[in-house]
Amino acid sequence: MPSAWAGCSAASPPRSATSARRRGCSLGTGSEQVHLLLVCTAERGLCGPFNSAIVRLARERANALMAEGKEVKFFCVGRKGYEQLRRLYQKQIIEHVELRSVRALGFEHAEGIGDKIVRLYEEGAFDVCTLFFSRFKSVIAQIPTAQQIIPPVFAGEAAGNDTGAVYEYEPDEDEILTELLPRNISVQIFRALAGEFRVVLRRPDDGDGQCHAQRRGNDLASRR
Fold it and tell me: Which domains are present in the chain?
């Protein structure tokens, strides 16, 4: 069932339990059996190719994982992706967050979704979470992107750059991780949502509902 972003907050468990479980967001469960695909697409506008590219990437990942015997679940943010994914994976969609009423995107919107993701992880709903979104390049160029956020994969790790350095933390490492790991998840989600809002909301007020990216593409095509 659809839910508003504001409903994503949850009561916090005891600090010691929270610290251990949220640190687990960094280390993972040790299993890769259950995958949550967090798919962020637009709420409005006619920028269909951008949304379809994100959904296609998520669908390809889902089918590949299921072919390996993995369990796949979907968390949909935005109406456009949800409408496409539910045709094939309706029973696997465990959450749908709508942002149709949002006119000015704020970090609190991403934070509400991030809290929901962390809570699902703490409840054992999945082992790996991957964020699917459209990385903004220009109004006519978007790059469909998949970014694993639980456990997180950073650029240095993906490239195999391990310096072997040992660090001492002040304050305590657990305290730092408890604060920063959920924040990192929310930051990644905010970046994904900001890309979608940049495409959909930055359009001329021409009354025909056509997004700026599509209009620009049509103008370029007509000049050729």
Answer: 2-10+23-154+170-223 (3.40.1380.10)
Bigger pLDDT: 29 vs 34 = 34
Question: How far does CA 35 lie from the centroid of its chain?
Answer: 13
Which of 17, 25, 9, 14 lies closest to 177, judged by CA? 25
Helix axes 107-122, 15-27, angle to 10 degrees: 90
Q: What is the mean pLDDT of the chain?
A: 75
Global pTM value: 0.70
**Pairing outcome for strands 34-40 and 141-150:** unpaired
Residue identified by tokens 């979608």 is: 196
Contact 125, 73 (CB under 8 A): yes
- Asked if residue 57 lies in contact with residue 74, where contact means CB atoms within 8 angstroms, the answer is no
